[in-house]
Amino acid sequence: QVERRHCLVSKAVEEVQKIIQQLTAEISYKATRFQAISNSGIHNENIKVLAPSQFLVTVPLRGLTGYRERQVRHWRYYTVHGAKLLSSVRDPEELHQWLEVEQFSKSLRQWHEKDVNIEGDLVPAKVLIVFRELVEKSIISCNLSSKVTVLESFSSLVRVAVETSESQVEVELVPAVEIPTCWPKKAQWPHCLKHWPSQEKVQCIKSLGFDLLARSNYHWQLCFSRAERILMEGLDEDGGCRMKCFRVLRQMKEDVWCAGNKPVITAYHLQ
């Protein structure tokens, strides 16, 4: 069962990757702020398999480099549409943050425009609105209407249904600011009783940086996919069998605990 799942998922990833790569290449052609995902096989860093029929694909944003953390706190009094508020917008939740264009030493002129920027803030909801329009137009211009359908959503998230040879896969497309070589202060590394991972590995992982995902209205979500990948790859470096246990648990989750196309428990929870 585990091997069969691996084959099916690998095939789905390959097909979805090919379609999304074509789609994002067209989006990047239309708007240079968005970068096409790479076509790098089943281990593509931009594709996260949450479940066999549920993928998350991060779409890198171009033209934001030289990130530095913001030290001074200030209040925001605007809606995502730019209207004024009498009371301030709530603070970010844990592992979320505001993002100002001035936090980057270099930024494309387009990131200062009103379609994505309010009072110097890069607003995820506005980025998603621009991105969604590009997705819809690019599906048509790439002649992908028979394979890709934009799903209705009550939020600003961009989800599409992709038809593969075996089944339909729901894919969330998430614009992402990639921030290499920097680790956020609010993401404190947990103190573990056992000596795994080693301090050397922790420092190596932190040097890979993190991403900021546009998945809410005001605040950017911190994402550590590169760190997760390195940790998972070294899960059995002491000779254990944790990866095998993980795969068995994942199979039980998909066959018994959360059978169906939209599981409540995903790979995030199991990891």
TrEMBL record:
Superkingdom to which the source organism belongs: Eukaryota
Record-linked InterPro entries: Mab-21-like_nuc_Trfase, MAB21L/cGLR
Domain Mab-21-like nucleotidyltransferase: 44-234
Coiled-coil residues: none
Signal peptide segment: none
One Pfam family from the record: Mab-21
Protein name (database record): Protein mab-21-like 3
